[in-house]
Write a sequence for this structure.
């Protein structure tokens, strides 16, 4: 069987290798997070609580301050506004389970993913980074 040993966050990277850092479920709580060294950051969802534009902007600002050469992001089930079908149904309802989201108008979240300017956002798409093909599909 294949054995994978965890690498300490400050272990020097061997020449010619690419180090990926994979995180998820930060839920708009990125202040003070100490991130490991790496070349490529993969954030695989739930970077916000509800996908509010203000949360996405804050996350994007955080990404912009990180030293990774490449940053790749995939939405999770908490990025409600990234799911256009879900939002279309939500705005038709008489009541909302998500009061903060219910205050949004469709134009507030039509292109919410465009707020992610400091990364590559994948939604049923792929990107090749340092010779590695990464495919991302949300929720």
């Amino acid at each position: 069987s294949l054995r994978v040993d965890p690498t300490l966050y400050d272990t020097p990277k061997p020449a010619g290798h690419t180090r990926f850092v994979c995180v998820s479920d930060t839920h708009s709580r990125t202040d003070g997070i100490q991130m490991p060294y790496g070349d490529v950051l993969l954030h695989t969802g739930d970077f916000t609580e509800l996908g509010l534009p203000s949360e996405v902007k804050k996350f994007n600002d955080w990404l912009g301050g990180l030293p990774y050469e490449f940053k790749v992001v995939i939405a999770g089930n908490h990025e409600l506004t990234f799911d256009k079908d879900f939002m279309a149904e939500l705005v038709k309802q008489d009541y909302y389970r998500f009061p903060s989201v219910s205050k949004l108008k469709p134009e507030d979240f039509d292109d919410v993913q465009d707020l992610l300017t400091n990364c590559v956002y994948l939604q049923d798409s792929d990107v090749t980074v340092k010779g590695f093909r990464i495919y991302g599909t949300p929720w």
User: Anything to note?
Assistant: The longest strand covers residues 70-74. The helical segments are 53-64, 84-90, 99-102, 106-109.
